[in-house]
Structures are given as C-alpha cells and as structure tokens.
TrEMBL record:
Superkingdom field: Bacteria
InterPro entries per the UniProt record, alphabetical: PhnI
Protein name: Alpha-D-ribose 1-methylphosphonate 5-triphosphate synthase subunit PhnI
Any one of the GO BP annotations: organic phosphonate metabolic process
Pfam families the record matches: PhnI
Native species: Ruegeria marina
Length: 363
C-alpha cells in the first residue's frame, strides 16, 4: 500500500537552504574564490574538466565550489551544463608532437631524443606533511625551463623507424561522438578511448593495476609521458583555411608493450594510448594500460578472462556519473516496491509456517 508523503516540496527547499549553509561553512573564515580553486587546486580542476568533457577551468572551479569539493558531483554539474551549449563545429586533431612540454619523460630511453623534462611532479617528493603550508607562507618561485624552439618528437617514432613497433592504422572516417550517441558494442578503439577519457579515474586506475598484477599478462613500459599546451585549430569554411582558436593543456601517454607476434604480424612492440585534459598523468597512464588490454582481439591474442580485457564490463562501468545515478537512486522513496516485497515475504513465511504445522500434525 502506497503512503503519500506530504510536505515534500517544503522539505526539499529547506534541505537546499541547509546545503548552501553547510557549503559556506564558518562565515568567519574567508570564502574561497574561483581563482583560488582554479590556481591552487588545479589537479582537481583538471579531473573535473577531463571527466566532465568540458575544457573550462573557471567553470570547473565553480562546480567544485558548488559541490563542496565532491568531484563526482562537480563532474555531474559540468556535464549537465555542457548539454546546454550549442555546437558550432569540430576542431582539427591536435598535434601533440608540437606540444610546448612542461613535463616530458620516458622510462624506455635515458637519452631520449629531444631531452627529458622532469617538470612539476610528486614523483620525488618525500610524502611528508609540509607544515610551512599551514603557516600560509609564500613559496619561492621555481626556476623556469627555457622554452623549446622546435617540436618534441615522440619516442615511438624512433621505434617505428626500425619497424620495431606496430604502426597505427589511419582512418579517414570521423570517429563517433560518445557525447551525442549512446555507447554500443562492439566499440571501436576511438570510442573506447573516449569512454576511458571520461571514465572515473579510480575505476580506470583499478583496471590498470589489475593488468600489472597479471590479470591480462601485459607488461608495459611508459614509452613517453608528456604534459603541456597544444594549439586548437578549426576549419572556417568562409575563409577556406584553419585558424587557431585557442590552446589547451593535455597529458599524453604512450606505453610500449611486448608482443610475441601472430599468424599475420611479426614479433614487435605494440602500444597503449591515453590522452586527458590538464595535468592528469595517473589517469593517462591508467588509460593507456587499459587501452592495450582491450586490444587483445585486434592483435590476435588470447582472451584470458581478465576484467580489463572485457570491453563491455570496462566501458559499461567506468562512467562515474552513470554509476552514481544508479547507486544513489536507491536512497530515494521506494515505498511501493518495498511494500510489495514485504507482502511477498509475509506470504512466504505464512506458507512455510503452514507446511511446518502440517508436517508436525502428520507426525
């Protein structure tokens, strides 16, 4: 039996007001500005932009502030806002080889052509709390690297010159757009990469970690990891040529994986690929590992039953907005559903008690 809830609208309005008060916190403490969030919580901003599929640091900062630091809620806000924006066209594929790199490392070649740039990284920090930050002291400026005058070549290009890495096939067909079309299986590699780029960082990291622990037997080296800014160009039909409309910060990772060859392919290296908005190297590396695991069929490898090899499992569960929506809907009113199950359990109990009574009477 359904019991109507009264006063729901008023309760919701009060809950919203209470939420706003909780978001603001102690009013004696200065309120965070969007500029502070954008500049000092930049990695959180980058994640919201990447998984929200919208490159706008100011809007991502606003979403983080509104969501009280809940990044998945912030991503939800960004995606919802994104659906209201008109689409004027599509940009050309960005040239990451022309990236102005702030960080560029390789785990495969010490003397990488073009040099290595350590850049801003946690890799060699001591992971000790810095109590000087609690004192809100000024941080001395870091030395600035000299700007690069020429494009930085990709490491895998040098392996390709010797024929040691599988060449990537080029396709003239425009890739499908996951933000405008529903995900369908089987998905091609471009669609899988879109899904992984929007996927939850923690989930993709877990899948990548599983491949390293042997659940896909796929040993990878980071051929190259680069972070920097690239130009975005768009073709203007009225002009007959492309113009630069801005630039975005990206993290790109190419992994180099062993490949024993197949009936049609000689032994060589293969690659996994990750490309993410902002400085998001953990996500880009994870994405590259999972991308390579999902290529088992294309490369003629055996399916080992690993979760990271299962395209439908990975892509159907990596989206944190879908997962959050389905998870959190169970806390909403389900009075009718529960009442029907409650009546069913009562009926089953009565029938079980009657059977026991009949059996005891027969004995």
């Amino acid at each position: 039996m359904y019991v109507a809830v009264k006063g729901g609208e008023r309760a919701i309005e009060n809950a919203h007001a209470w939420l706003a008060e909780e978001r603001r916190g102690d009013t004696s403490v200065a309120e965070l500005s969007l500029a502070q969030i954008r500049e000092q919580l930049s990695l959180a901003v980058n994640r919201v932009m990447a998984e929200g599929s919208l490159y706008d640091p100011d809007l991502a900062a606003l979403a983080i502030k509104q969501a009280r630091g809940d990044l998945i809620e912030a991503i939800f806000l960004i995606r919802a806002y994104r659906t209201t924006l008109p689409r004027f066209g599509a940009s050309r594929a960005v040239d990451t080889g022309a990236m102005a790199c702030d960080r560029r490392i390789s785990a495969t070649f010490k003397d990488a052509p073009g040099g290595q740039v350590l850049g801003p990284t946690f890799d060699y920090t001591h992971r000790l709390l810095d109590f000087k930050l609690a004192a809100e002291g000024e941080v001395p400026p870091a030395p600035q690297a000299a700007p690069r005058g020429e494009p930085t070549p990709h490491i895998t290009e040098f392996l390709g010159q010797e024929g040691l890495i599988q060449p990537e096939p080029e396709s003239e067909a425009a890739p499908r757009d996951l933000t405008r079309e529903p995900l369908e299986f089987p998905a091609d590699r471009a669609l899988r990469l879109q899904s992984l780029a929007r996927g939850d960082e923690g989930f993709v990291l877990g899948m990548a970690y599983s491949t390293q622990r042997g659940y896909a037997r796929n040993h990878a080296f980071v051929g190259e990891l680069r972070i920097g800014r690239v130009a975005v160009e768009m073709d203007i039909p009225e002009l007959g040529f492309a113009i630069e409309i801005g630039e975005v910060e990206l993290t790109e990772c190419e992994t180099v994986n062993q490949f024993k060859g197949s009936k049609t392919e000689p032994p060589q290296f293969t690659r996994g690929y990750g490309l993410v908005f902002g400085q998001s190297e953990r996500k880009a590396i994870s994405m590259a590992l999972v991308d390579r695991a999902l290529r088992w069929q294309e490369l003629g490898e055996d399916f080992l039953g690993a979760a990271a090899q299962d395209e439908e499992f990975v892509l159907s569960h990596c989206d944190n907005i879908q997962a959050t929506g389905f998870l959190e809907h169970i806390k909403l009113p389900h009075y009718v559903d529960f009442q029907s199950e409650l009546e069913l359990v009562r009926k089953l109990r009565r029938e079980a008690e009657e059977r026991i009574a009949h059996r005891e009477a027969a004995e």
